[in-house]
Known about the structure:
Chain A is mostly helical. Chain A has 21 helices and 2 strands. In chain A, strands 1-2 form a two-stranded antiparallel sheet.
Amino acid sequence: MTVLSVLAQLSGPPFESLPIDWHALAPEVVLLSVAVLITLVDSIGLERARPLMPGLAGLGLLGALIPVITLAVEGSDRVLFGGAYVVDDLSLLLKAVFLLSGYVIVLLSTNYIAEGDYWEGEYYNLLLFSLLGMVVMASARDLITIFVALELLSIPAYMLAAWRKGDRRSNEAGMKYLLMGVFASAVMLYGMSLVYGVTGTTLLEPIGLIFAEVGTASVITLGVIFVIIGFSFKVSAVPFHTWAPDTYEGAPTPVAAFLAVASKIAGFVALISLIYFGFLGQSDLIEPLLFILATLSMFVGNLIALRQTNIIRMLAYSGVAQAGFMLAPFAVAASDPETSLKAVVTYLVIYAAMNLGAFAVVIALARKTRSGEISSFGGAFQYAPALTVAMSVFLFSLAGIPPLGGWFAKFSVFAAVVNAGTTAGYVMAVIVAVNSVIALYYYAQVAKTMWMDPVPDGDMTPVGVPPSLGWAIVLTAALTLLFGVLPGLLGDVTDSFDLGHLELLAFPG
Amino acid sequence: MNGGVDAAYLVLGAVLFAIGAAGLLVRRNLLVMFMCVELMLNAVNVTFVAFASALGDIGGQVAVFFVLVVAASEVVVGLALIVAIMRRKPGATADDISLMKG
Amino acid sequence: MPNPLNELLRQYLTVAIFAGLGLAMVGAMLGVGWLLRPDRPEPQKYINYESGVDPLGVMWSQSQIRYYVFALLFVLFDVEAVFIFPWATRLEAYGAFGLIEMAVFIFILALGLVYAWRKGVLRWV
């Protein structure tokens, strides 16, 4: 008997090649190919290839959007890898949000990175790999897949935060983000190992059915709390938000925009998958837990944002508060699963447009003022009227003033918590309303500085906005207005979600 | 539920995890903090493998593979960051990376 | 009828053949080296080998930072091998599909090495 035939016998039954739905995986494949291509071009061309990088990355992201659109037009749900990976309307919408946010980030980065004497090929390569992780996250319905997607999107982000290698503040930003991030993923993983131990599977669907049946148990409670705490770091919910302001301030501003928008949304996408597809049966646990996280995030974020003098730090704390608004519907997740899920998704989409826009205007204005202090933007209306109008649109949208997109986002959240009809829901509605008013104060304060205050140094030369940055601002402003004026557009998309399983998980038997 | 699992492994995992978490929060040396993270991740691995062998399910062992690889990637990025920080300020501890105050 | 003891010994024969082949290969390589190399003994050549650095002074000296980059690269590529071992145990069963999958995996890994090489990380200066 030869050694090889012994090995063949040991290796068990013949392996059947998995049927792989390449159409469903096309967005990921395109994104991966472009990221690999960037590394290849960068390795071959070295310095000569630098100007190609932003274009290549932008085209790659738009190219990955094509299969997302064809999949959405075709419309059927596709389940891959035994239920670990699901491509449905919900995940396609989120993939489109990630890809478009990535495209806007590339537009924001083009001049910032090219003029800063930084490494370009690596920057866009890491950006694309991080976005690949997010796109995978949108479809992940399995604990291991969620974990791998989370790390794929986080590890490049740690490096991007420390991108200005010679600057101690950027090093510090990367280090704080990394330490917090790895701590959070360790906590989350421990929670996952407990959930796996209790249910015997890593797939969310059977976990959901088991959790709906068994009721509470101490191991389940511990596991679920650890997993949710792990993702609270990612979405910078209070009390796990401490890394966010420092990291945003020290990181290059386009990276701060990336972390504040794409990375935060990815954390929420993971929470949506985990809670609405897995943990919904444990309503006695998740509803109070997320109620506390949402309330703390809104109050602490808003109150600290009030006294910030640096615009990036203000946006960081306002982002903490925005995370609170997005967590609010989770507090009624089990009482009214369908409405609250749609409210979260609506808020995520609109938040991406308006917050990216605010960062884009800050990057444009900082090209002239060379400062992040809010006071340095005084009188911006006199030399940059278009930017000031755009910034006002984004700020008032973040505050939730009609007819801007943020209004519809806040309205959806408000409607969802009221609609649930629980006491916690009504209390949450009051908290959301109070915090909307607090937030309006500091957003309006920035707008007032830009419109009314005198120019600090009297320098009235207009701001040179590069075309890519201008296009990013136009795009985000148009989307912010569109979602506010025609909220039905987004409503039609969220209404097409296939959410039949929610009733089964939330109200078993 | 987890009938066959030996509680000793789970206790070991929990204790290792707690030591790692406490170390990360208490120690100020950046390298030691990374070692604590490794400890936490390996505690997770012990728990996963204990459950996987008790359940007779391969899923937990697959998870360990990914945790191992991810831990290595995280530590490589972290060490590179430590080198970048040490070049500016030799002998830096966690107290030195506080130019910005949350 | 095969004797179980014989069967066991026969299996150990494979091990013995492998061990013998291994020893023969090492011996052959050292032997060929001994035959071909020039023989010029110098005192410096008898000092313990320490990665090209003179083994002098205290042990707690600081090591060069450039070792660090190699160590980081090593850790990454070393750990990635964890995915290759389970694949290798079922190589025949996976067939062409598995081969292509692994080729893609190794291509992406190798690309990392090509990148490091082109960016001058591997240069010892």
